[in-house]
Design a protein that fits this description.
Shape: elongated
Order of helices and strands: EEEEHE
Radius of gyration: 15 Å
Largest sheet: 5 strands, antiparallel
Number of strands: 5
Strand content: 35-45%
Helix content: under 10%
Strand order of the largest sheet: 4-3-2-1-5
Length: 85
């Protein structure tokens, strides 16, 4: 994977789980933030953000269908130094 990436911005994914049964059943929504870029071949590259909104962990290439289906743009999250990611 090339280090020459075009940054698209910060996106999020949501994971919904249910805890309990019957009247005590509760919905739990976990939101995770991602730095999303395009590589030189036009493939979507994601990298998760930690609690300080800093990219951490491995980069992962995903297909366009997964990106459009699961990822939601987060325009309200401003990441300083996106050109350095």
């Amino acid at each position: 994977m090339s280090d020459d990436l075009k940054h698209l911005g910060i996106y999020s994914t949501k994971r919904v789980t249910y805890i309990g049964t019957g009247m005590t059943r509760r919905k739990n929504v976990q939101k995770r933030y991602w730095a999303v870029s395009l590589d030189d071949e036009g493939k979507v590259v994601t990298q998760s953000l930690n609690q300080n909104l800093v990219p951490s962990g491995p980069k992962r290439v995903i297909n366009d269908d997964e990106f459009h289906e699961r990822f939601e743009f987060e325009p309200d999250i401003y990441a300083l130094g996106m050109d350095e990611l």
